[in-house]
Write a structure and sequence with these properties.
The structure holds 2 protein chains of 2 kinds. Helix content of chain A is 30%, strand content 42%. Chain A has a 9-stranded mixed β-sheet. In chain A, strands 5-6 form a two-stranded antiparallel sheet. Chain A has a two-stranded antiparallel sheet with strand order 8-9. The longest helix of chain A has 24 residues. The N and C termini of chain A lie far apart (51 Å). By secondary structure, chain B is mostly helical. Chain B contains 11 helices and 5 strands, in the order E-E-H-H-H-H-H-H-E-E-H-H-H-H-H-E. In chain B, a hairpin with a 4-residue loop joins strand 1 and strand 2. In chain B, helix 1 crosses helix 10, helix 2 packs antiparallel against helix 3 and helix 8 packs across helix 9. The two termini of chain B are 27 Å apart. The chains are: A alpha+beta, B mainly alpha. Strand 5 of chain A pairs antiparallel with strand 5 of chain B.
Chain lengths: 251, 309
Protein backbone atom coordinates (compact mmCIF):
# COMPACT_ATOMS: atom_id res chain seq x y z
CA UNK A 1 0.00 0.00 0.00
CA UNK A 2 2.88 2.32 0.86
CA UNK A 3 4.33 1.67 -2.58
CA UNK A 4 1.00 2.59 -4.14
CA UNK A 5 0.90 5.85 -2.28
CA UNK A 6 4.43 6.64 -3.40
CA UNK A 7 3.54 5.98 -7.02
CA UNK A 8 0.42 8.00 -6.65
CA UNK A 9 2.34 10.89 -5.12
CA UNK A 10 5.02 10.83 -7.77
CA UNK A 11 2.50 10.79 -10.56
CA UNK A 12 0.60 13.63 -8.99
CA UNK A 13 3.82 15.63 -8.68
CA UNK A 14 4.73 14.91 -12.27
CA UNK A 15 1.28 15.87 -13.43
CA UNK A 16 1.00 19.11 -11.58
CA UNK A 17 4.54 20.36 -12.12
CA UNK A 18 4.01 22.49 -15.20
CA UNK A 19 3.32 21.26 -18.74
CA UNK A 20 3.75 17.51 -18.62
CA UNK A 21 2.80 14.44 -20.55
CA UNK A 22 0.62 11.51 -19.73
CA UNK A 23 2.23 9.27 -17.11
CA UNK A 24 1.14 5.90 -15.79
CA UNK A 25 2.53 3.34 -13.40
CA UNK A 26 1.59 -0.07 -12.13
CA UNK A 27 1.43 -1.30 -8.57
CA UNK A 28 3.57 -4.20 -9.71
CA UNK A 29 5.50 -4.43 -12.96
CA UNK A 30 6.70 -7.95 -12.47
CA UNK A 31 4.20 -10.67 -11.61
CA UNK A 32 5.82 -13.77 -10.19
CA UNK A 33 4.05 -17.08 -10.51
CA UNK A 34 4.82 -19.14 -7.46
CA UNK A 35 3.26 -22.21 -5.89
CA UNK A 36 0.42 -20.24 -4.33
CA UNK A 37 -0.33 -18.26 -7.50
CA UNK A 38 -4.04 -17.95 -8.09
CA UNK A 39 -4.16 -14.93 -10.36
CA UNK A 40 -3.06 -11.39 -9.59
CA UNK A 41 -4.71 -8.01 -9.22
CA UNK A 42 -2.75 -4.96 -10.24
CA UNK A 43 -3.58 -1.33 -9.93
CA UNK A 44 -2.72 1.09 -12.67
CA UNK A 45 -2.40 4.74 -11.74
CA UNK A 46 -2.11 7.52 -14.23
CA UNK A 47 -2.23 11.27 -14.68
CA UNK A 48 -3.10 13.00 -17.93
CA UNK A 49 -0.59 15.78 -17.38
CA UNK A 50 -1.37 19.14 -18.90
CA UNK A 51 -0.07 19.11 -22.44
CA UNK A 52 -3.02 17.44 -24.07
CA UNK A 53 -5.99 18.25 -21.92
CA UNK A 54 -6.66 20.63 -19.14
CA UNK A 55 -7.16 18.11 -16.32
CA UNK A 56 -9.38 20.39 -14.30
CA UNK A 57 -11.72 21.84 -16.88
CA UNK A 58 -11.70 19.41 -19.79
CA UNK A 59 -13.76 16.26 -20.03
CA UNK A 60 -11.61 13.39 -21.10
CA UNK A 61 -11.90 9.62 -21.33
CA UNK A 62 -9.35 6.96 -20.55
CA UNK A 63 -9.06 3.62 -22.32
CA UNK A 64 -6.49 1.14 -21.06
CA UNK A 65 -5.49 -1.88 -23.10
CA UNK A 66 -3.45 -4.70 -21.60
CA UNK A 67 -2.09 -7.08 -24.17
CA UNK A 68 -0.34 -10.35 -23.30
CA UNK A 69 2.30 -12.22 -25.26
CA UNK A 70 1.38 -13.53 -28.69
CA UNK A 71 0.90 -17.28 -28.72
CA UNK A 72 0.13 -19.59 -31.60
CA UNK A 73 -3.43 -20.59 -30.78
CA UNK A 74 -5.59 -23.22 -32.41
CA UNK A 75 -9.37 -23.01 -32.39
CA UNK A 76 -11.08 -26.31 -33.00
CA UNK A 77 -14.67 -27.00 -33.93
CA UNK A 78 -16.46 -30.22 -33.07
CA UNK A 79 -18.69 -31.94 -35.56
CA UNK A 80 -20.91 -34.95 -35.30
CA UNK A 81 -19.31 -37.88 -37.07
CA UNK A 82 -21.45 -40.98 -36.75
CA UNK A 83 -22.74 -41.06 -33.18
CA UNK A 84 -19.93 -39.04 -31.60
CA UNK A 85 -18.68 -35.47 -31.50
CA UNK A 86 -15.20 -35.10 -32.91
CA UNK A 87 -12.83 -32.17 -33.43
CA UNK A 88 -13.26 -31.80 -37.17
CA UNK A 89 -12.25 -28.30 -38.26
CA UNK A 90 -9.47 -26.23 -36.87
CA UNK A 91 -7.99 -22.85 -37.52
CA UNK A 92 -4.60 -21.71 -36.32
CA UNK A 93 -3.93 -18.14 -35.24
CA UNK A 94 -0.15 -17.79 -35.33
CA UNK A 95 -0.11 -14.67 -33.15
CA UNK A 96 -3.19 -14.33 -30.97
CA UNK A 97 -2.65 -12.44 -27.72
CA UNK A 98 -2.68 -14.82 -24.77
CA UNK A 99 -4.31 -12.10 -22.72
CA UNK A 100 -6.25 -9.04 -23.81
CA UNK A 101 -8.12 -6.62 -21.59
CA UNK A 102 -9.76 -3.31 -22.33
CA UNK A 103 -10.81 -1.06 -19.46
CA UNK A 104 -12.48 2.29 -20.06
CA UNK A 105 -13.89 5.19 -18.09
CA UNK A 106 -17.23 4.89 -19.92
CA UNK A 107 -18.82 2.32 -22.23
CA UNK A 108 -16.61 2.25 -25.35
CA UNK A 109 -19.48 3.31 -27.62
CA UNK A 110 -19.84 6.55 -25.64
CA UNK A 111 -16.15 7.43 -25.90
CA UNK A 112 -15.58 7.27 -29.64
CA UNK A 113 -17.04 5.85 -32.81
CA UNK A 114 -16.43 2.29 -33.85
CA UNK A 115 -14.47 3.61 -36.83
CA UNK A 116 -12.16 5.52 -34.51
CA UNK A 117 -11.48 2.43 -32.39
CA UNK A 118 -10.93 0.46 -35.59
CA UNK A 119 -8.32 2.94 -36.82
CA UNK A 120 -6.48 2.76 -33.50
CA UNK A 121 -6.85 -1.02 -33.30
CA UNK A 122 -8.50 -0.87 -29.88
CA UNK A 123 -10.94 -3.55 -28.83
CA UNK A 124 -11.09 -7.22 -29.62
CA UNK A 125 -13.06 -6.72 -32.85
CA UNK A 126 -10.30 -4.50 -34.19
CA UNK A 127 -7.34 -6.70 -33.28
CA UNK A 128 -5.39 -7.48 -36.44
CA UNK A 129 -5.84 -11.25 -36.10
CA UNK A 130 -4.69 -13.45 -38.93
CA UNK A 131 -5.23 -17.14 -39.45
CA UNK A 132 -2.94 -19.60 -41.16
CA UNK A 133 -4.45 -21.09 -44.31
CA UNK A 134 -3.11 -23.03 -47.28
CA UNK A 135 -2.68 -19.76 -49.12
CA UNK A 136 -0.71 -18.03 -46.40
CA UNK A 137 -2.07 -15.75 -43.72
CA UNK A 138 -5.63 -14.59 -44.20
CA UNK A 139 -8.51 -13.05 -42.30
CA UNK A 140 -10.05 -15.71 -40.09
CA UNK A 141 -13.54 -17.07 -40.50
CA UNK A 142 -15.71 -14.84 -38.26
CA UNK A 143 -17.19 -17.84 -36.49
CA UNK A 144 -13.75 -18.98 -35.35
CA UNK A 145 -12.78 -15.46 -34.38
CA UNK A 146 -15.91 -15.11 -32.28
CA UNK A 147 -15.27 -18.54 -30.74
CA UNK A 148 -11.74 -17.50 -29.78
CA UNK A 149 -13.09 -14.41 -28.05
CA UNK A 150 -15.93 -16.28 -26.36
CA UNK A 151 -13.74 -19.06 -24.97
CA UNK A 152 -10.89 -16.81 -23.87
CA UNK A 153 -13.42 -14.45 -22.27
CA UNK A 154 -15.00 -17.35 -20.37
CA UNK A 155 -11.53 -18.09 -18.96
CA UNK A 156 -11.07 -14.42 -18.00
CA UNK A 157 -8.21 -14.14 -20.49
CA UNK A 158 -10.08 -11.68 -22.70
CA UNK A 159 -11.87 -8.90 -20.87
CA UNK A 160 -13.71 -6.11 -22.54
CA UNK A 161 -16.40 -3.75 -21.23
CA UNK A 162 -15.91 -5.32 -17.82
CA UNK A 163 -13.31 -3.21 -16.04
CA UNK A 164 -13.78 0.44 -15.34
CA UNK A 165 -11.28 3.26 -15.20
CA UNK A 166 -12.18 5.65 -12.39
CA UNK A 167 -11.39 9.32 -12.37
CA UNK A 168 -9.81 10.24 -9.07
CA UNK A 169 -9.89 13.97 -9.91
CA UNK A 170 -7.42 16.60 -11.08
CA UNK A 171 -6.56 14.49 -14.10
CA UNK A 172 -5.69 11.42 -12.07
CA UNK A 173 -7.25 8.06 -12.86
CA UNK A 174 -6.85 4.44 -11.84
CA UNK A 175 -8.02 1.00 -12.82
CA UNK A 176 -7.71 -2.58 -11.65
CA UNK A 177 -6.08 -5.13 -13.89
CA UNK A 178 -7.11 -8.68 -13.20
CA UNK A 179 -4.80 -11.48 -14.33
CA UNK A 180 -6.38 -14.94 -13.91
CA UNK A 181 -4.46 -17.99 -12.64
CA UNK A 182 -4.10 -19.40 -16.15
CA UNK A 183 -2.47 -16.23 -17.51
CA UNK A 184 0.30 -16.96 -20.01
CA UNK A 185 3.84 -16.04 -19.05
CA UNK A 186 5.72 -13.46 -21.06
CA UNK A 187 5.92 -9.78 -21.77
CA UNK A 188 2.78 -7.69 -21.55
CA UNK A 189 2.13 -4.17 -22.76
CA UNK A 190 -0.12 -1.78 -20.90
CA UNK A 191 -1.26 0.98 -23.21
CA UNK A 192 -3.15 4.02 -22.02
CA UNK A 193 -5.15 6.18 -24.43
CA UNK A 194 -6.64 9.55 -23.51
CA UNK A 195 -9.67 10.43 -25.60
CA UNK A 196 -11.18 13.87 -26.01
CA UNK A 197 -14.19 14.44 -28.22
CA UNK A 198 -13.87 11.02 -29.73
CA UNK A 199 -10.22 11.04 -30.73
CA UNK A 200 -6.93 10.25 -29.06
CA UNK A 201 -5.03 13.21 -27.62
CA UNK A 202 -2.39 11.34 -25.64
CA UNK A 203 -1.09 7.82 -25.29
CA UNK A 204 1.66 5.93 -23.58
CA UNK A 205 2.73 2.39 -22.92
CA UNK A 206 4.50 0.61 -20.11
CA UNK A 207 5.70 -2.98 -19.96
CA UNK A 208 4.56 -5.67 -17.58
CA UNK A 209 6.24 -9.04 -17.13
CA UNK A 210 4.58 -12.22 -15.95
CA UNK A 211 6.99 -15.02 -15.23
CA UNK A 212 7.32 -18.22 -13.28
CA UNK A 213 9.72 -17.76 -10.42
CA UNK A 214 11.88 -19.77 -8.10
CA UNK A 215 10.98 -23.40 -7.80
CA UNK A 216 8.12 -23.17 -10.32
CA UNK A 217 10.44 -21.70 -12.94
CA UNK A 218 13.13 -24.28 -12.18
CA UNK A 219 10.69 -27.19 -12.45
CA UNK A 220 9.24 -25.90 -15.71
CA UNK A 221 12.67 -25.27 -17.25
CA UNK A 222 13.92 -28.66 -16.12
CA UNK A 223 10.90 -30.41 -17.68
CA UNK A 224 11.27 -28.54 -20.97
CA UNK A 225 15.04 -28.29 -21.36
CA UNK A 226 16.06 -31.67 -19.97
CA UNK A 227 12.93 -33.77 -20.56
CA UNK A 228 14.77 -37.09 -20.33
CA UNK A 229 16.34 -36.28 -16.98
CA UNK A 230 13.06 -34.85 -15.79
CA UNK A 231 11.42 -38.18 -16.62
CA UNK A 232 14.17 -40.08 -14.79
CA UNK A 233 13.73 -37.79 -11.79
CA UNK A 234 9.97 -38.32 -11.86
CA UNK A 235 10.53 -42.11 -11.82
CA UNK A 236 13.07 -41.93 -8.98
CA UNK A 237 10.73 -39.75 -6.92
CA UNK A 238 7.84 -42.14 -7.62
CA UNK A 239 9.90 -45.20 -6.65
CA UNK A 240 11.13 -43.69 -3.40
CA UNK A 241 7.73 -42.21 -2.52
CA UNK A 242 6.10 -45.57 -3.22
CA UNK A 243 8.67 -47.39 -1.12
CA UNK A 244 8.27 -44.87 1.70
CA UNK A 245 4.49 -45.20 1.51
CA UNK A 246 4.84 -48.96 1.81
CA UNK A 247 7.06 -48.66 4.89
CA UNK A 248 4.74 -46.15 6.57
CA UNK A 249 1.64 -48.09 5.57
CA UNK A 250 2.82 -51.16 7.50
CA UNK A 251 3.02 -49.25 10.76
CA UNK B 1 -5.84 -23.62 -0.66
CA UNK B 2 -4.79 -23.11 -4.27
CA UNK B 3 -1.61 -24.68 -5.52
CA UNK B 4 -0.08 -23.72 -8.84
CA UNK B 5 1.11 -26.75 -10.79
CA UNK B 6 4.02 -25.58 -12.95
CA UNK B 7 3.83 -28.33 -15.58
CA UNK B 8 0.07 -28.59 -15.90
CA UNK B 9 0.08 -24.76 -15.79
CA UNK B 10 -3.04 -24.48 -13.74
CA UNK B 11 -4.00 -23.75 -10.20
CA UNK B 12 -5.82 -26.48 -8.27
CA UNK B 13 -7.08 -26.75 -4.75
CA UNK B 14 -4.56 -28.88 -2.88
CA UNK B 15 -7.27 -30.53 -0.73
CA UNK B 16 -9.30 -31.40 -3.81
CA UNK B 17 -6.24 -33.13 -5.31
CA UNK B 18 -5.42 -35.05 -2.13
CA UNK B 19 -9.12 -35.84 -1.72
CA UNK B 20 -9.34 -37.31 -5.21
CA UNK B 21 -6.24 -39.38 -4.47
CA UNK B 22 -7.85 -40.57 -1.23
CA UNK B 23 -11.16 -41.56 -2.85
CA UNK B 24 -9.45 -43.51 -5.62
CA UNK B 25 -6.98 -44.95 -3.10
CA UNK B 26 -9.90 -46.08 -0.96
CA UNK B 27 -11.55 -47.83 -3.88
CA UNK B 28 -8.32 -49.40 -5.10
CA UNK B 29 -7.52 -50.59 -1.58
CA UNK B 30 -10.99 -52.06 -1.24
CA UNK B 31 -11.03 -53.81 -4.60
CA UNK B 32 -7.32 -54.56 -4.86
CA UNK B 33 -6.90 -52.76 -8.18
CA UNK B 34 -4.41 -50.12 -9.28
CA UNK B 35 -6.94 -47.38 -9.73
CA UNK B 36 -5.44 -45.70 -12.79
CA UNK B 37 -8.62 -46.29 -14.77
CA UNK B 38 -10.51 -44.31 -12.11
CA UNK B 39 -7.91 -41.63 -11.39
CA UNK B 40 -7.26 -40.55 -14.98
CA UNK B 41 -10.96 -39.96 -15.81
CA UNK B 42 -11.44 -38.19 -12.46
CA UNK B 43 -8.55 -35.84 -13.26
CA UNK B 44 -10.01 -35.17 -16.69
CA UNK B 45 -13.48 -34.54 -15.25
CA UNK B 46 -11.95 -32.05 -12.79
CA UNK B 47 -10.41 -29.97 -15.56
CA UNK B 48 -6.86 -31.29 -15.92
CA UNK B 49 -5.93 -31.47 -19.62
CA UNK B 50 -6.32 -35.13 -20.68
CA UNK B 51 -2.72 -35.37 -21.89
CA UNK B 52 -1.41 -34.19 -18.50
CA UNK B 53 -3.82 -36.51 -16.69
CA UNK B 54 -2.62 -39.58 -18.60
CA UNK B 55 1.10 -38.84 -18.32
CA UNK B 56 0.96 -37.81 -14.65
CA UNK B 57 -1.10 -40.83 -13.73
CA UNK B 58 1.57 -43.13 -15.20
CA UNK B 59 3.98 -41.52 -12.77
CA UNK B 60 1.64 -42.04 -9.83
CA UNK B 61 1.00 -45.69 -10.73
CA UNK B 62 4.74 -46.40 -10.63
CA UNK B 63 4.76 -45.15 -7.04
CA UNK B 64 1.52 -46.88 -6.08
CA UNK B 65 2.72 -50.26 -7.41
CA UNK B 66 6.04 -50.32 -5.55
CA UNK B 67 4.82 -51.26 -2.09
CA UNK B 68 2.47 -53.94 -3.45
CA UNK B 69 5.17 -55.42 -5.64
CA UNK B 70 7.63 -55.47 -2.71
CA UNK B 71 5.11 -57.29 -0.53
CA UNK B 72 4.55 -59.92 -3.22
CA UNK B 73 8.29 -60.19 -3.80
CA UNK B 74 8.89 -61.06 -0.14
CA UNK B 75 6.18 -63.72 -0.41
CA UNK B 76 7.95 -65.19 -3.48
CA UNK B 77 4.96 -64.07 -5.51
CA UNK B 78 6.86 -62.69 -8.49
CA UNK B 79 7.84 -64.77 -11.53
CA UNK B 80 10.84 -62.67 -12.54
CA UNK B 81 11.46 -64.43 -15.84
CA UNK B 82 7.83 -64.05 -16.89
CA UNK B 83 7.94 -60.48 -15.62
CA UNK B 84 10.95 -59.63 -17.76
CA UNK B 85 9.33 -61.04 -20.90
CA UNK B 86 6.19 -59.02 -20.10
CA UNK B 87 8.33 -55.91 -19.53
CA UNK B 88 10.11 -56.29 -22.90
CA UNK B 89 6.72 -56.49 -24.59
CA UNK B 90 5.48 -53.62 -22.43
CA UNK B 91 8.44 -51.41 -23.35
CA UNK B 92 7.75 -51.85 -27.05
CA UNK B 93 4.01 -51.26 -26.53
CA UNK B 94 4.57 -48.21 -24.37
CA UNK B 95 6.94 -46.73 -26.94
CA UNK B 96 4.40 -47.25 -29.73
CA UNK B 97 1.58 -45.92 -27.55
CA UNK B 98 3.55 -42.78 -26.64
CA UNK B 99 4.33 -42.12 -30.32
CA UNK B 100 0.67 -42.48 -31.29
CA UNK B 101 -0.24 -40.27 -28.34
CA UNK B 102 2.18 -37.53 -29.44
CA UNK B 103 1.03 -37.72 -33.04
CA UNK B 104 -2.66 -37.51 -32.19
CA UNK B 105 -1.97 -34.68 -29.76
CA UNK B 106 -0.50 -32.64 -32.59
CA UNK B 107 -3.70 -33.28 -34.56
CA UNK B 108 -5.90 -32.28 -31.63
CA UNK B 109 -7.39 -35.76 -31.42
CA UNK B 110 -5.74 -37.12 -28.28
CA UNK B 111 -8.78 -36.40 -26.09
CA UNK B 112 -10.95 -38.35 -28.45
CA UNK B 113 -8.53 -41.28 -28.46
CA UNK B 114 -8.37 -41.33 -24.64
CA UNK B 115 -12.17 -41.27 -24.36
CA UNK B 116 -12.65 -43.94 -27.02
CA UNK B 117 -10.02 -46.19 -25.41
CA UNK B 118 -11.76 -45.83 -22.05
CA UNK B 119 -15.20 -46.54 -23.45
CA UNK B 120 -14.04 -49.63 -25.35
CA UNK B 121 -11.84 -51.17 -22.64
CA UNK B 122 -13.83 -50.25 -19.57
CA UNK B 123 -17.01 -51.25 -21.37
CA UNK B 124 -15.78 -54.69 -22.34
CA UNK B 125 -13.79 -55.48 -19.18
CA UNK B 126 -16.52 -54.10 -16.92
CA UNK B 127 -19.21 -55.96 -18.83
CA UNK B 128 -17.35 -59.27 -18.66
CA UNK B 129 -16.49 -58.83 -15.03
CA UNK B 130 -20.05 -57.95 -14.13
CA UNK B 131 -21.44 -60.92 -16.04
CA UNK B 132 -18.92 -63.28 -14.49
CA UNK B 133 -19.48 -62.08 -10.92
CA UNK B 134 -23.27 -62.14 -11.21
CA UNK B 135 -23.02 -65.69 -12.52
CA UNK B 136 -20.78 -66.63 -9.60
CA UNK B 137 -23.20 -65.11 -7.10
CA UNK B 138 -26.18 -66.90 -8.67
CA UNK B 139 -24.30 -70.21 -8.74
CA UNK B 140 -23.33 -69.84 -5.13
CA UNK B 141 -26.94 -69.19 -4.13
CA UNK B 142 -28.01 -72.33 -6.00
CA UNK B 143 -25.13 -74.29 -4.48
CA UNK B 144 -23.45 -75.27 -7.75
CA UNK B 145 -19.73 -76.00 -7.50
CA UNK B 146 -17.90 -75.41 -10.81
CA UNK B 147 -15.72 -78.32 -11.89
CA UNK B 148 -12.08 -77.23 -12.01
CA UNK B 149 -10.35 -77.69 -15.36
CA UNK B 150 -7.36 -80.02 -15.16
CA UNK B 151 -4.00 -78.21 -15.51
CA UNK B 152 -3.09 -80.04 -18.70
CA UNK B 153 -6.10 -78.71 -20.57
CA UNK B 154 -5.60 -75.10 -19.67
CA UNK B 155 -4.27 -74.05 -23.04
CA UNK B 156 -6.06 -74.01 -26.31
CA UNK B 157 -4.42 -75.89 -29.19
CA UNK B 158 -3.25 -72.74 -31.00
CA UNK B 159 -1.26 -71.69 -27.97
CA UNK B 160 0.72 -74.95 -28.04
CA UNK B 161 1.41 -74.45 -31.72
CA UNK B 162 3.26 -71.15 -31.21
CA UNK B 163 7.07 -71.16 -31.64
CA UNK B 164 9.85 -69.85 -29.31
CA UNK B 165 8.80 -71.90 -26.30
CA UNK B 166 10.27 -70.92 -22.98
CA UNK B 167 10.19 -72.52 -19.57
CA UNK B 168 8.86 -70.40 -16.71
CA UNK B 169 9.67 -72.40 -13.59
CA UNK B 170 7.89 -70.27 -11.07
CA UNK B 171 4.68 -70.33 -13.07
CA UNK B 172 5.22 -74.02 -13.90
CA UNK B 173 4.68 -73.27 -17.57
CA UNK B 174 6.32 -74.22 -20.84
CA UNK B 175 4.84 -71.91 -23.42
CA UNK B 176 5.77 -69.69 -26.32
CA UNK B 177 7.41 -66.40 -25.30
CA UNK B 178 5.34 -64.68 -27.99
CA UNK B 179 2.25 -64.93 -25.82
CA UNK B 180 3.54 -62.97 -22.78
CA UNK B 181 5.38 -60.63 -25.17
CA UNK B 182 2.12 -59.88 -26.94
CA UNK B 183 0.19 -59.41 -23.70
CA UNK B 184 2.92 -57.13 -22.33
CA UNK B 185 2.95 -55.09 -25.50
CA UNK B 186 -0.80 -54.67 -25.51
CA UNK B 187 -0.73 -53.55 -21.88
CA UNK B 188 2.14 -51.18 -22.65
CA UNK B 189 0.08 -49.48 -25.36
CA UNK B 190 -2.83 -49.09 -22.93
CA UNK B 191 -0.49 -47.69 -20.25
CA UNK B 192 0.76 -45.01 -22.63
CA UNK B 193 -2.57 -43.92 -24.07
CA UNK B 194 -4.88 -44.38 -21.08
CA UNK B 195 -2.74 -43.60 -18.05
CA UNK B 196 -3.43 -46.97 -16.47
CA UNK B 197 -1.23 -49.77 -15.17
CA UNK B 198 -3.18 -52.26 -17.22
CA UNK B 199 -3.69 -54.80 -14.44
CA UNK B 200 -7.35 -55.08 -15.36
CA UNK B 201 -6.32 -56.56 -18.71
CA UNK B 202 -3.10 -58.29 -17.70
CA UNK B 203 -4.40 -60.24 -14.69
CA UNK B 204 -7.26 -61.93 -16.58
CA UNK B 205 -4.92 -62.56 -19.52
CA UNK B 206 -2.34 -64.19 -17.23
CA UNK B 207 -4.95 -66.42 -15.63
CA UNK B 208 -7.05 -67.41 -18.62
CA UNK B 209 -4.64 -67.13 -21.52
CA UNK B 210 -1.28 -68.04 -19.98
CA UNK B 211 -2.71 -70.26 -17.26
CA UNK B 212 -0.41 -68.88 -14.57
CA UNK B 213 -1.04 -70.03 -10.99
CA UNK B 214 -2.92 -67.33 -9.08
CA UNK B 215 -0.27 -66.94 -6.36
CA UNK B 216 2.20 -65.32 -8.79
CA UNK B 217 -0.28 -63.44 -10.99
CA UNK B 218 -0.74 -60.22 -8.99
CA UNK B 219 2.92 -59.92 -7.95
CA UNK B 220 4.21 -60.46 -11.49
CA UNK B 221 1.65 -58.04 -12.90
CA UNK B 222 2.69 -55.34 -10.39
CA UNK B 223 6.35 -56.06 -11.17
CA UNK B 224 5.66 -55.43 -14.86
CA UNK B 225 3.54 -52.34 -14.15
CA UNK B 226 6.35 -50.61 -12.20
CA UNK B 227 8.76 -50.86 -15.11
CA UNK B 228 6.30 -50.15 -17.89
CA UNK B 229 4.71 -47.12 -16.22
CA UNK B 230 8.21 -45.83 -15.38
CA UNK B 231 9.14 -46.10 -19.06
CA UNK B 232 5.83 -44.51 -20.04
CA UNK B 233 6.58 -41.60 -17.69
CA UNK B 234 9.94 -41.08 -19.40
CA UNK B 235 8.46 -41.34 -22.91
CA UNK B 236 5.76 -38.79 -22.10
CA UNK B 237 8.29 -36.48 -20.41
CA UNK B 238 10.47 -36.54 -23.51
CA UNK B 239 7.69 -36.31 -26.09
CA UNK B 240 5.15 -33.93 -24.61
CA UNK B 241 6.44 -32.62 -21.23
CA UNK B 242 3.12 -33.43 -19.64
CA UNK B 243 4.26 -35.27 -16.48
CA UNK B 244 3.53 -33.16 -13.42
CA UNK B 245 5.56 -34.62 -10.55
CA UNK B 246 3.82 -32.41 -7.98
CA UNK B 247 0.37 -33.50 -9.02
CA UNK B 248 1.53 -37.13 -8.96
CA UNK B 249 3.03 -36.86 -5.46
CA UNK B 250 -0.10 -35.18 -4.06
CA UNK B 251 -2.33 -37.83 -5.60
CA UNK B 252 -0.08 -40.54 -4.19
CA UNK B 253 -0.23 -38.98 -0.74
CA UNK B 254 -4.03 -39.11 -0.79
CA UNK B 255 -4.04 -42.57 -2.32
CA UNK B 256 -1.79 -44.07 0.37
CA UNK B 257 -4.13 -42.90 3.13
CA UNK B 258 -7.26 -43.93 1.23
CA UNK B 259 -5.88 -47.36 0.38
CA UNK B 260 -5.28 -48.20 4.05
CA UNK B 261 -8.92 -47.52 4.91
CA UNK B 262 -10.17 -49.17 1.74
CA UNK B 263 -8.22 -52.38 2.32
CA UNK B 264 -9.87 -52.77 5.75
CA UNK B 265 -13.33 -52.19 4.28
CA UNK B 266 -12.65 -54.69 1.52
CA UNK B 267 -12.08 -57.50 4.03
CA UNK B 268 -15.71 -57.28 5.11
CA UNK B 269 -17.13 -57.98 1.66
CA UNK B 270 -17.22 -61.22 -0.27
CA UNK B 271 -15.04 -61.60 -3.35
CA UNK B 272 -17.98 -61.91 -5.76
CA UNK B 273 -19.75 -58.92 -4.28
CA UNK B 274 -16.54 -56.88 -4.54
CA UNK B 275 -16.11 -57.85 -8.17
CA UNK B 276 -19.71 -57.00 -9.00
CA UNK B 277 -19.32 -53.60 -7.31
CA UNK B 278 -16.04 -52.94 -9.08
CA UNK B 279 -17.62 -53.91 -12.39
CA UNK B 280 -20.47 -51.48 -11.78
CA UNK B 281 -18.00 -48.70 -11.05
CA UNK B 282 -16.00 -49.47 -14.18
CA UNK B 283 -19.21 -49.39 -16.22
CA UNK B 284 -20.20 -46.08 -14.60
CA UNK B 285 -16.92 -44.39 -15.62
CA UNK B 286 -17.29 -45.91 -19.08
CA UNK B 287 -20.85 -44.60 -19.32
CA UNK B 288 -19.83 -41.07 -18.31
CA UNK B 289 -16.98 -41.06 -20.83
CA UNK B 290 -19.29 -42.37 -23.53
CA UNK B 291 -22.00 -39.86 -22.70
CA UNK B 292 -19.56 -36.97 -23.12
CA UNK B 293 -18.76 -38.26 -26.60
CA UNK B 294 -22.36 -38.68 -27.70
CA UNK B 295 -24.17 -35.70 -26.17
CA UNK B 296 -23.91 -32.48 -28.13
CA UNK B 297 -21.46 -30.24 -26.27
CA UNK B 298 -22.73 -26.79 -25.23
CA UNK B 299 -19.58 -25.25 -26.68
CA UNK B 300 -18.61 -26.77 -30.01
CA UNK B 301 -15.36 -24.83 -30.14
CA UNK B 302 -12.25 -25.26 -28.07
CA UNK B 303 -9.01 -23.36 -27.85
CA UNK B 304 -5.55 -24.82 -27.48
CA UNK B 305 -2.00 -23.72 -27.91
CA UNK B 306 -0.48 -25.04 -31.11
CA UNK B 307 0.40 -28.69 -30.81
CA UNK B 308 -1.45 -28.97 -27.53
CA UNK B 309 -4.73 -30.80 -26.97
Amino acid sequence: MRRLLTIFGMIWLAATGGASALVTDLSNKRIEIRYSFNGADLILFGAVGSSAVDPVNDDFDVVIVVRGPEIETVVRQKQKIGPIWVNANNLSFPAAPGYYAVAASRPLADIASDAAFASYGIGFDHLPLLARTERGLAAPHPEFRRALFRIQASQDLFRQERDEVTHVGEGLFKTDIRLPANVPVGEFLVETFIFKNGSIVARNRIPLVVDKEGFERAAYDFAHNYPFWYGITAVIIALSAGWLAGVLGKK
Amino acid sequence: MPLYLPIAELSMNIFLVIGMGAVVGFLSGMFGVGGGFLMTPLLIFSGVPPAVAVATESNEITAASVSGALAHWRRQGVDVKMGIVLIIGGAVGSFIGAQVFTYLRSLGQVDLMISLAYVVFLGSVGGLMFWESVRAIVRQRRGIVPTPTPREDRHKAWIHALPFKMRFRKSRLYISALLPLGIGMFVGVLAAIMGVGGGFVMVPAMIYLLGMPTNVVVGTSLFQIIFVTALTTIFHSVNTQTVDIFLAVLLLFGAVIGAQVGARMGLRLKAEQLRALLALMVLLVCFKMGLDLVVEPTELFSVGEAGVH
